[in-house]
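hi!! sorry for the late reply, been swamped w classes. u asked for the two structures so here they r. pasted raw, havent cleaned anything up. first the sequence of the first protein and right below it the tokens
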Amino acid sequence: MSVKAGDERRRQILDHARGTGHIGVTELADRLAVASETVRRDLKVLEDHGLIRRTHGGAYPVESAGFESSMDRRAGSLVAEKHRIAEAAVAALGDAETVFVDEGYTPQLIAERLAVVERPLTVVTSSLAAAGSLAANSRHTTILLGGRVRGRTMGIVDHWATSMLTGLVIDLAVLGANGLSREHGLTTPDPAVAAVKQTAARVSRRRMFVGVHTKFGVASFCRFAEIADFELLVTDSGLPAYEAHRYSVMGPQVVRV
């Protein structure tokens, strides 16, 4: 088979992965009418180029400067794990009175739980969805950053948002990422999103990462923080214990739920 045909097949595999969120080797072999071993070789090439991450029997797409999943897609993936992460994150608030809540589906779940916390909180957020959940609690003060709204995530970005954050001192920042790795720290595809996250991390006394295990070992386009900047990484039990230990030696506690 020609190199061109192989490139076209891998393009189809990548498009399918980005459309569905996860792909299986057997399904791809049937769809493309090729051997499973051919699919595995294609997945290896795509992984070597940082476009996918292989799993047992399949793969999922890595978010990059050219691709970012929608909130609808995130809301349908590893949902039980994200709910457990949200519960653990709220349990780890400690004595924080002011909290930054990031954009993203898992932070949105955290905001829904913060909305029913009985003690008063001041919550700053870059997420329209999170602000809507929090504003219903009259005990809380909810501050929504101003700026441009990203249609894909309903997150607020650009210099208006970072300017508001610069004038604050926040007890705890609850931050997501599209990827985090020991080599490249915490990353996200969009420079404007990275600027908001970076500023929130800088003005906060404590920082907590929240995200599913598929984020680990992944590097996206823009770095906004280092692993050592965080006191806590909250993820699900899909992250192997030995991998959790490799991150914990860099400084943060790793909680697997």
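now the second protein. again sequence first, tokens right under
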Amino acid sequence: MDVVWMILGAIFLLGGLAGAVLPILPGPPISFIGIVFFQFTDKVNISVKWMWIMGIAAVVITVLDYIVPSYFTKKYGAHWFSSVMAFVGMIIGLIFFPPLGLIIGPFIGAFLGELMVGRIWQQGLKSAFASFLGFLFGTMLKLIYAFIAIVIIVHFWGDIEIESIENLAFYSK
């Protein structure tokens, strides 16, 4: 049965890595499911504490991935309406033009939001660029999570129990 769990775990870890760069897939939750599958085997033993940390991180990163583009537009001087429009653009892009719409939607939404409140197109482009930076930031967080999930499984294959950050940082085979 271990082989089945390992195959499923590997598929989900790779799916989580793909989800880090493909906006349509929720990468961190998929990676976490991969970790859970490996936990069912006799080969990997991760403490409950680390399972909770990885599970909570998956939820937080997934939520941030939807919020950060709007936050970045506001941080870069966009009108509050542009932040709202960036979020609306993301939703519309996700529904009608996946997966590319999740990237372009917030950009167009922020740009149109600035124009709709009477700002010049240069400010609209600045806000749209900030939205894109938010998207890149979210993608970076998801990639880091996916790589950590893979490293935990690959590097700690065997009877080691990951209890502390010291084990994670300093253990070498």
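hope this helps!! also noticed smth abt the second:
The CA atoms of residues 4 and 37 lie 9 Å apart.
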